[in-house]
Amino acid sequence: MPFEVKMPQLGMNQDSAVIVSWLKAAGEKVAAGEAIFEVETDKATVEVEAAADGFLAGIRAPEGADVPVGDVIAMIVDREAEVGEHESAATAPDGPAEAPPTPPAPVPSPAPEPNEAEVAAPPKTVPPAIAAGRILASALAKRVASEQGIDLAALRASGVSEPIHARDLAQAPAGGHSVLSTRVEGGALAALLERSEGANRTALFAAFATSAWRAAVEDAAVSIAIRGLDGSITPYPADAGADAALSLIDLCDTRLGSFAPAGGTPALAAAREGDAFLLTLSFNEGRLPFPTAAALLDAIAARVEDPIRQLL
Amino acid sequence: MRSITLSQAVNEAIAEEMRRDETVFLIGEDVAEAGTPFKVTSGLVEEFGTGRVIDTPIAEPGFTGLAVGAAMTGARPIVDLMFGDFLFLVMDQLCNQAAKAHYMSGGKLNVPMVLRTNLGATRRSAAQHSQSLHALVAHIPGLKVAMPSSAYEAKGLMKTAIRDNNPVVIFEDKLMYQDKAPVPEEEFLIPFGEANILLEGRDVTLIGTSSMRQVCEAAAEMLARDGISAEVIDPRTIVPLDEATILESVKKTSRAIVVDEGHQNFGTTAEIAARISEKAFYHLDAPVIRMGAMDVPVPFSPALEDLTVPTPEKVAETAHRIVAGELIHAL
């Protein structure tokens, strides 16, 4: 059974050591406890003893090489005949510590050290933010803009120079909302509602919005605040937290056409227009960029038009 | 109210506490007949004798270690360290022994010791007698750090320090020993961990320790002439630090400059600025600015030395820049 000779840890904060000299040559017989090489740490030069009886083989680190602690630098094999098997892994005595890149060496790669594994791990990627193009604004300006539904991107576009500070928010146009709307054929949804007893139209809109959000915005559960005509707010799903990503108001039982509330949260309003449904999405481009908003409303409209999609 | 110098204020505080409590004694180099190079302890040996006002050889580690032991066994020593720079000599006694004895003895030992020393450059004392090293000791859990900014604070904080059952390090600014301030004749103490708002303002908070309080006050005056309203806060003790007062102020003004005479790198300014950034982030309209001493050994050349410390002009200029909303990457 070949025994691996590893660079030992000789000091508390030592992560590598220099091989001063090999006291045994490849193929030479060694006994456990016999010094086989000398290493130099930042504090001292130390002789390292063999941990097993056998023959030294496959010396991989030449004299002068700085070798990380734990790296395999040679083998001790049981029989002299095995020495040759390990010689291919050896490094030429005056060669560089690392093997030359070409030709592809038949070096059996040593088991990865924990350190190497860490280095090799792919860097963590930061998920891209919803908004593209970072806006330079102070933390206070961002917080106040968010509270007041002010679109910092629009503010920048209007000529306010960056970094944007709290006082610059006074230049924001009132409201700061963008509005998208669409008229959707309502026959299929009306039929579905008639067929299924007790079906809740508002909850159905919320379900459409949830699935459209997954398709157009991000593949994650979205919490919706359903605003009632009486001023109530109902979370959807029922166990959703207070921070809704979207608000929904169902105006179908009224004569009203659309509603674009103030605030930074995107808002969906659904109303009747004859046999059709009128869907309005009001949003703040700083929080929900236009392309995403357009895709979202289109996806919702598609589901209202053809509710079977929702089941797929 | 009468005005007295910072030296007199410290002298009074020590004398009053020595009269009140016979376990209080003073020990250090030249504290008796010479009354220290800054004449802070003059007259004390005449009143209390050489048994309680003890001159030592030039051996800081020895007399500081002696005081730590005396404090553990019932006395309340006041150690006089002639220059703050000599703290490096007593690090083991102070940081390994005094700071940890209470904790490591499971509360059986107390070290009610005061180490009074000084800080401050621009006295042409060169690199080994001009440092402001309070951040070194503030870093060590178990030590309290007081930084009086006038004669009034010097007296009130010294009396609190002497009565505290924990080791306290007091840094007096050696440039301020002759500065006078109103100090009541009747007894008073200043509790630790209570910052002092010297000036209320709405545009920027200037936090200044020790003599940097005066620098901030002067900067605030200059800023007021330009229509900028600065709030000035003196933390008075940096351990414990009155975080609440500082955060409340920054939440109001949305901008802060922290001014301290220690080196800027890894210093007191960095610690206070970091706490503001962490805990008042969403109220900040500008980066929190640190203004410490330049990161160089304090020069002996007067022309160079004066450049290394924050001045009212530099603080005011910096305040102008952040109030104007300049994009600041480096100052």
Structural commentary:
The complex is a heterodimer of chains A (312) and B (331). Chain A is α+β, with helices and mostly antiparallel strands and 312 residues long. Chain A has 8 helices and 14 strands. A 6-stranded mixed beta sheet of chain A has the order 9-14-13-12-10-11, covered by helices on one side. Chain A has a 4-stranded antiparallel beta sheet with strand order 1-8-6-3. A 4-stranded antiparallel beta sheet of chain A has the order 5-4-2-7, with no helix packed on it. In chain A, helix 6 packs across helix 7. Chain A is elongated. The two termini of chain A are 60 Å apart. Chain B is 35% helix and 19% strand. Chain B contains 12 helices and 14 strands. In chain B, the strands form 3 sheets. In chain B, strands 3-2-4-5-7-6-12 form a 7-stranded mixed beta sheet, with helices on both faces. In chain B, strands 9-11-10-13-14 form a 5-stranded mixed beta sheet, sandwiched between helices. A two-stranded antiparallel ribbon of chain B has the order 1-8. The mean pLDDT of chain B is 97. Classes of the chains: A alpha+beta (312), B alpha/beta (331). The interface between A and B is small, with 13 and 9 residues.
Which features characterize this protein?
heterodimer; A: 312 residues; alpha+beta; 6-stranded mixed sheet; 4-stranded antiparallel sheet; 8 helices; 14 strands; 23% helix; 23% strand; B: 331 residues; alpha/beta; 7-stranded mixed sheet; 5-stranded mixed sheet; globular
Q: What is the β-strand count of chain A? A: 14
Structural class, from secondary structure content of chain B?
alpha/beta
Could you estimate the helical fraction of the residues of chain A in percent?
10-25%
Q: Bin the helical content of chain B.
A: 25-40%
Nearest-integer average pLDDT of chain A: 80
Q: Poorly predicted ranges of chain A (pLDDT <50, ≥5 residues)?
A: 91-132
Following the backbone from N to C, one meets helices and strands of chain B in this order, namely EHEHEHEHHEHEHEEEEHEEHEHEHH
Order of helices and strands of chain A: EEEEEEEEHHHHEHHEEEEEHH
